[in-house]
């Protein structure tokens, strides 16, 4: 039996554990054993936490009944936090030298900001939390940080597809794909042990331009007898000629507009289809 705690002490400890284990079923009896109290007392504690979290849009607390039941914490951002995030990123996108050769947009500094990264990852995870995601997948290298953060909030593994695998990864499956507007043929590889057959995969990446990389990832996933359960990118540049990508989500859209007076391109940023149609799952 554990140490006997007062209710306020239990509430602090339980809240901390729920925050550290998002989207993970936690057994009520294990809480009761840990805090040396009745399971009914734990249920009352959970209800108190649930009310506070839901009233303040801090997350959803779900309880499952039965012998193997428990509690699941599903994090979310409040409506105000989402609006503030939209304006914060839109303002940041107007600063610095963001237009790169080939019409790519520099977003690394945004996804290296821990506050922005965690908020974006939590937002993506809250949308896909109930879509039975088994794995979060990305391609090296810029999308890795975001995919790891999303996987953490979803409580699922993450997988990184390599452009060139190392011997440490063992045998791999590779495919060729067309990347960029110049129709360049490239190769991507994934270790055979990385993705179990039948996995439902969420593709996460930092930036979408032509769509060739995303199509390549989808084709590679099919080689593992798995399926794409969702596609979500941080930002996209609305290209005139883009490969057809089914049912993808982008948090932000960027557009290059030529300024005749200044005689150079400027960058416009707005919320993408993800944020425009976002509903907490």
Automatic annotation (TrEMBL):
SUPFAM superfamilies xref list: PRTase-like (SSF53271), Winged helix' DNA-binding domain (SSF46785)
The entry's keywords: DNA-binding, Transcription, Transcription regulation
Organism domain of life: Bacteria
Residue ranges constituting the Phosphoribosyltransferase domain according to the UniProt record: 109-254
Xref: InterPro entries: PRTase-like (IPR029057), PRTase_dom (IPR000836), Pur/Pyrimidine_PRTase (IPR050118), PuR_N (IPR015265), PurR_Bsub (IPR010078), WH-like_DNA-bd_sf (IPR036388), WH_DNA-bd_sf (IPR036390)
Gene3D superfamilies named among the record's database cross-references: 3.40.50.2020, Winged helix-like DNA-binding domain superfamily/Winged helix DNA-binding domain
Bacterial purine repressor N-terminal domain segment(s): 6-75
Protein family membership: Belongs to the purine/pyrimidine phosphoribosyltransferase family. PurR subfamily.
NCBIfam families registered for this protein in UniProt: purR_Bsub
Subunit and interaction comment: Homodimer.
Protein name: Pur operon repressor
């Amino acid at each position: 039996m554990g140490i006997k705690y007062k209710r306020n002490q239990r509430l602090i400890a339980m809240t901390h554990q729920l925050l550290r284990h998002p989207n993970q079923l936690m057994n009520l009896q294990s809480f009761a054993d840990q805090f040396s109290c009745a399971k009914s007392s734990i249920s009352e504690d959970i209800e108190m936490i649930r009310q506070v979290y839901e009233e303040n849009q801090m997350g959803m607390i779900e309880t499952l009944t039965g012998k193997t039941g428990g509690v699941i914490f599903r994090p979310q951002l409040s409506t105000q936090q989402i609006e503030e995030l939209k304006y914060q990123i839109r303002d940041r996108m107007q600063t610095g030298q963001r237009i790169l050769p080939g019409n790519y947009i520099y977003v690394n500094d945004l996804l290296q900001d821990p506050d922005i990264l965690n908020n974006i990852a939590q937002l993506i995870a809250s949308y896909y939390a109930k879509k039975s995601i088994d794995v979060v997948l990305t391609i090296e290298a810029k999308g890795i940080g975001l995919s790891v953060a999303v996987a953490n909030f979803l409580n699922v593994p993450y997988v990184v597809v390599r452009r060139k695998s190392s011997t440490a990864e063992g045998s791999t499956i590779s495919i060729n794909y067309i990347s960029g507007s110049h129709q360049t043929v490239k190769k991507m590889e994934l270790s055979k042990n990385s993705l179990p057959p039948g996995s439902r995969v969420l593709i996460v990446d930092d930036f979408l331009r032509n769509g060739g990389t995303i199509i390549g990832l989808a084709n590679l996933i099919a080689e593992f007898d798995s399926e794409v359960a969702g596609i979500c990118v941080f930002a996209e540049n609305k290209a005139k000629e883009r490969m057809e990508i089914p049912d993808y989500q982008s948090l932000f859209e960027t557009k290059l507009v030529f300024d005749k007076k200044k005689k150079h391109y400027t960058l416009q940023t707005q919320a993408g289809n993800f944020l425009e149609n976002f509903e907490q799952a």
